[in-house]
Amino acid sequence: MQIGIVGLGLIGGSLALDFSSQGRSVWGLSRSRATCEMALSMGAVDTAVTALEEIPQLVQTEIVFVCTPIAQVLPTVQLLASHLPAHTIITDVASVKGAIVQSAQAIYARFVGSHPMAGKAEQGIKAAQLGLFANCPCVVCPSEDVEALALVRSLWTGLGMQVYDCDPHTHDQAVAWISHLPVMLGASLIHACQQECDPKVQYFAQKLASSGFRDTTRVGGGNPELGRLMAQFNCEAVLTALSQYQAQLDHLAQLINQENWSAVQNYMENAQTWRSLFLEKSTH
Amino acid sequence: MQIGIVGLGLIGGSLALDFSSQGRSVWGLSRSRATCEMALSMGAVDTAVTALEEIPQLVQTEIVFVCTPIAQVLPTVQLLASHLPAHTIITDVASVKGAIVQSAQAIYARFVGSHPMAGKAEQGIKAAQLGLFANCPCVVCPSEDVEALALVRSLWTGLGMQVYDCDPHTHDQAVAWISHLPVMLGASLIHACQQECDPKVQYFAQKLASSGFRDTTRVGGGNPELGRLMAQFNCEAVLTALSQYQAQLDHLAQLINQENWSAVQNYMENAQTWRSLFLEKSTH
Description:
The structure is a homodimer.
Chain A: E1 2-6, H1 10-21, E2 25-29, H2 33-41, E3 47-49, E4 61-66, H3 73-81, E5 89-92, H4 101-107, E6 111-112, E7 114-116, E8 137-140, H5 146-158, E9 162-165, H6 168-194, H7 199-208, H8 211-216, H9 224-233, H10 235-257, H11 261-279
Parallel strand pairs in A: 1-2, 1-4, 2-3, 4-5, 5-6, 8-9
Antiparallel strand pairs in A: 7-8
């Protein structure tokens, strides 16, 4: 099976490494010549080019993974649609689905929306890693093309992912809570700490920040473009989640202000208990 | 040198392991007989007892580390003051200093306030770890007892910690930002996610939560008693930090609501840049 990957960053590069290690033929497309060369030297791809026209035997490609930033997914599907043979399937990896799936399927019927929930702090092909997707969850969105859906599901499963079928709207609301909101609140924590006006307090805050601050701000202080695109392409769900989050913060601040320590204790105990509902499956 | 440790949890137990590995004589005091036995079997202490009266040759103790929960520090200092010889020094490890240092020094002149900023998700003696404190920051508060201050500083430095001299009030404001606020906002994130009323969205939020959610909520979903005590004993600074944090969140929500994507991008870029100001020294 020949697999194409457009966009050779962390996700595209890691996908290429995984598929190549399975003995599949993989081509990669990147705007950057240096990225193409690195993908080749890592053994992630058989062919890496900067223009679709340069791919030899494009007709043999069974599926293309669009791994560009969110804003480039639809233009890329448009470009691929004008070059690919009709049998080829297209999927993507974008962290929003409502803004993409329906439009992409209107452009190209054999499009299936995917969202593999894997990542790390570093970006780019240099950070690509064999096995990045193993044991992580992956959403696949509904499609009337049953054959395309089955292939996409089986490829993600083959990388060790736990695949969930989920419609784009539900997906976007769910990831607003557990993926996009953490970015917004981590970024705001860094801003708030940085706005402290007493230079002595500021100095010690910087010197004393340790693993708690590091972990809480990891995604909020990560890739700025990704954070902006989450807000931009999942605007409604992110604003709803932000507003409900602010209501929770108000409630906690009120309990502290009232010196209601048993209620604060109870709030913290619930947080500890409920957290495991969101994370327990990662141990399976 | 004989060292005493009151409270054999994660911090007390790890301290005992470190000091024992340096060849020092260490006694431990815990309310729990099982904890005492575990500390002995781990080789963390030479003697472990459940009552101060049972410690042989208490007169030889040069310094006692109070490693109890925050609320027990002052009662413990009071208890120690009535048993220790006048030459013994007392220090603590509590994450607030304003509520402790002055009162403890009034009870016992040779008290020096400390706050080693080290930890992990697990609690209790079972989680104790050799080298837990290495390369982490530690605050030591001013004292007129120059000799006591020098001993406390040198013992922390000997564990590989970066020691900072900081007055209690400044310390409490700084840790409100980088240690206590992350707990409050992580706990509120878990509450907000759990309040989602659409069961389908709730289901997928739980299934799709991955490393971003895990890291952002690690301290917020940690030890509930510690979270409550931070709020209780550092109430004023925590409320100030919460309020300024909420203003930052409001600002970000407004930018998103205005669809001002270049400003959101800029907000995320600043977060990424500023984060390194708080974390860069951890690579030294």
